[in-house]
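cache lookup: miss for this entity combination. No prior model stored, computing from scratch. Input as submitted by user K.M.:
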Amino acid sequence: MLSDLLPILLASADAAAVDPATRFIRLLTVFLLAMWVGFEVITKVPQRLHTPLTSGSNAISGITAVGAIVVAGSLATRFGTLLGFLAVVLAMINVVGGFVVTHRMLEMFNPKKK
Amino acid sequence: MSSQAWINLAYLTASMLFIVAFKLMTGPRTAVKGNYLGAVGMAIAILAACFEQPVVQSVAARGATPIVMLAVAGIIGAAIGATMAIKYPMTGMPQMVALLNGFGGAASSLVAGAELWSMTAAAKLTGETNAAAVKAAETQLAPWSQFAIATALTGLIGAVTFWGSFVAFAKLEELPRFKKAWTDPNRHLINLGLAIATLALIAGLCAYPTSNLLYWLLVIVGSALGCTLTLPIGGADMPVVICLLNSYSGLAAAAAGFVIDNNVLVIAGSLVGASGLILTAIMCQAMNRSLVGVLFGGLGTSTAAAGGDDIYAGKVKSASAEEIAMVLEGADRVVIVPGYGLAVAQAQHAVRELANALEKRGATVEYAIHPVAGRMPGHMNVLLAEADIPYEKLREMDDINPTFPETDVAIVIGANDVVNPAARTDPKSPIAGMPVLDVDKARTVVVVKRSLSPGFAGIPNPLFAADNTLMYFADGKKAILDLTNALSKG
């Protein structure tokens, strides 16, 4: 049964069955460009928004939920699924908690609420 | 278009939304919208992930089981996250952010661990039907492959993030065991040992990527390193640590993206990584500390502490609440300088009342916010906003510094190094060149402080002995309440 499911897990690896170096460079390009965009955009944030920015970006770092869903949802191995399940829980705490907290903080800066 | 193409398109949309979200975060009016867009992007990415081939195929093989499981996990996580975010008091924000951040790091480590486990299991399969899968797994598990290196890095950074954040949480929450910075003289040796072990394990895992044991050993060593790197860091350096850990959690997610070949993880992760690094640099600059100094802790805390006595001898003027109230009565323009001590004493509401009392007498009151005031970046703004202090009155350092000469009274509450004029006047001072608030240029300076003890830079502050300075020795919150009382009586 296990052996029926394992190939599923590798589907994504199959799809990317290009030369490993090409694949790596492709991702590295994305990584470096995104870092650069990040530097450019964030440099302009004023000091008073540093806290919401920290917590907002914190929420976005929960993007690892995507990876967690893929490894947990494949049900490939029991232990792997357990780890994936835990990862989904933790990443979702990060995502939901992060966005809600940021919203609460920004609300306080908003004088209209009174 | 294949289903994978649609999924990738969804990821691309999510990535663009994240970038726009960051962009909108740069303006106070657009920040709320930015946060919404970030959340929408996240929802799109998470939904798309549920349609990834591994999930779809396991649904085909097992029915609803995987979807139910994912939904359960998602709901548990969302419920815990939402409860934490809503229930936690606003003043505990730094702790809360630290904790959430740690969870993200831990999740990345688990993703890499799960992927490695399943991949090594796949490589052990036998039989004709599995030939393709086995071959694919073997390619992934080749020594020094992208998969191997990225798995090692994810495990390490994720573990450091989780434990580092946990220690930061414990320190900010002021759990008794974590209150004092860890200053064991052997800590540099311990860190060095852990660093060597880390490098050895990374190299080992890259060379033998089929070893799950090496991976979990690396996670354990990374956990220890996360603790030993954060434990020695003092309370005043916390803003730097929070930024740095934030950056790590992003980098861990980006590394996990390299493990599972996923663009959206790489993009979102590196955006967060970059934002954390920039904030770290800003914080370090504002504290005149080198990143290395903060990380390896305790630098300069014990060195230049001497010499305070001759600076202070006979020149420090201590005043009572009534005397200070008298000075305040005649003031037209008052600037309040809140510092780390105010955040610790939670005196923001008391400060608001004092400001109200002053404004009732016709004085204008403004607040001078140093970039590192508080316990996390921009924390003071959040604290004062919580006490309903209008936003326009909070002024940044460069903006308010030129106005100090026209200020009648500057009230410094729980701040020390950030108002030390020695940074400007004494080129030999350890904090020379550090940006400070020029409160000493105000006509009268009132310093509310418990004692003459030095701040985290460990140096005396000539401001306390200046002719125009009145010291008010008391606990922050009580002092402000007494001042307000004295003022309304007078």
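stored under new cache key. The beta strands of chain B are 333-338, 364-369, 394-396, 409-413, 444-449, 469-473.
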